[in-house]
Amino acid sequence: MKNKKAVNVQLNNDSDKNLTRRDFFKKSLLYSASALGTTSVLSPSLLNANEKEIIEEAPWGTKLGDPVDKNLYGVPSAYEHNNIRRTHDLLSSGDSYASISMCPIHESEGIITPNGLFFTRNHGGTAQVDPNKWRLMIHGKVKKPMVFTLDDLKKYPSESRIYFIECPANGSPGWRGPQFNSLQFMKGMMSSAQWTGVMLKTILEDIGLEKDAVWMLAEGSDNASNPRTIPVEKALDDVMVVWAQNGEALRPEQGYPVRLIVPGWEGNLNTKWLRRLEFSDKPWHSKEETSKYTMLQKSGKAIRYFWVNEVNSVITSPCPEKPWTHLKKGDKVEIEGLAWSGSGTIKHVDISFDGGDNWVEANLKGLVLPKSWTRFSYIMKWEGKPLLLASRATDDVGRTQPTIDQETSKVGVESVYHRNAIVTWEITKKGECNNVQIRKHKKA
Ligand SMILES: Nc1nc2c(c(=O)[nH]1)N[C@H]1C(S)=C(S)[C@@H](COP(=O)(O)O)O[C@H]1N2
Ligand SMILES: [Mo]
């Protein structure tokens, strides 16, 4: 059964009333051209209206533009003021320090999040760290315990790799039923970047790991310190110690000057403002320091170690923030979305128009990398009929997203973590898009 009680959220945080709100409604001008008799979105009839203004009198072309030294660190066009992180009282622990700001993934293009839009999850505020005073200690079960400065770290050969970070609570605003009529609030606890730093295994080869080291404790230098333990096999596999994000130093919100990247695993393990890595031959037993995010199953038993963000996907266009209200019957339109898997590479993504009874395969677009956002696309003609649009991803370890029923029959609705069930958008006759949940699929 569908549950349509999702809250509509006000997305327009306009601070400057002089600016037109730049968003998807603008595109209606373009698309409505198809109402004039063709299914092409690029109808030549568009060109008759303000031709003069287009060729000679655009207001921004009649005088000199801004000088090149106006913004020595560039900022987005003022018309893009609506493309911002957003936060909500329902998602914070009561203040803005132990809180989260959600990535506007409905505005995201490609597979990289611009640094200013990366979702931010803090437990004790954003630390402002002086990189000259910053140190990283690596100790415990290692042959040569070391304290690194930032310069020391940068002497190692560097690697640049694209990975997403996803908080395991991503999707939790839908765990009992759709809560927000918004993609940003539903799935925006994730972002993606190209990270540059050194592979942890390179450092460990250098300083020497003791044979009996089995656990690594990672700790930050912020007010929360975020201690987390990670098995040594993962540390020696693909964990990175990074100082750069999309070609520049990490942002303070992302852990400047150095953070841990634990590819594909729970976001909380990616310790920011990193200060210490300690190796041990046994797990840490204090409640504070062992794996935090256990998963209570319906059986009453909890899964203690559950680190991987499993295969997942969501349609990003259309979505509640980007409906099809500007489309006319018979218009061609591209369905787009993001798929990701912490276990490996996306193999294929299927799309359903009827809430999961029938599926067709979408195209994967652009780079298809392990533990990385993968974009999918499907071009269709919309006949103005209501649809139940859903996407379902499969990864190269053979995992496929479950239905909500399959997921809740296993893990119940008590645990908010690791939700990766199929997300369904309802498209109405008018082209509105709503967050709904289809609990029963005929051919699940
Ligand atoms: N030191 C420290 N590291 C931290 C946190 C924190 O509060 N302090 N939050 C964790 C959580 S819960 C998540 S989901 C990710 C979020 O990374 P981001 O803020 O760069 O998106 O950082 C993790 N690393
Ligand atoms: Mo998190």
From TrEMBL:
GO terms for biological process: sulfur compound metabolic process. Keywords: Metal-binding, Molybdenum, Oxidoreductase. Its cofactor is Mo-molybdopterin. Residues 123-285 form the Oxidoreductase molybdopterin-binding domain. It is an enzyme of class 1 (oxidoreductase). Its EC number is 1.8.3.1. InterPro entries: Ig_E-set (IPR014756), MoCF_OxRdtse_dimer (IPR005066), Mopterin_OxRdtase_euk (IPR008335), OxRdtase_Mopterin-bd_dom (IPR000572), OxRdtase_Mopterin-bd_sf (IPR036374), Sulfite_DH_SoxC (IPR030835). Gene3D superfamilies: 2.60.40.650, Oxidoreductase, molybdopterin-binding domain. Pfam families: Mo-co_dimer (PF03404), Oxidored_molyb (PF00174). One of its GO terms (molecular function) is heme binding. The keyword Oxidoreductase applies. Residues 309-423 form the Moybdenum cofactor oxidoreductase dimerisation domain. This is Sulfite dehydrogenase. The gene is soxC.
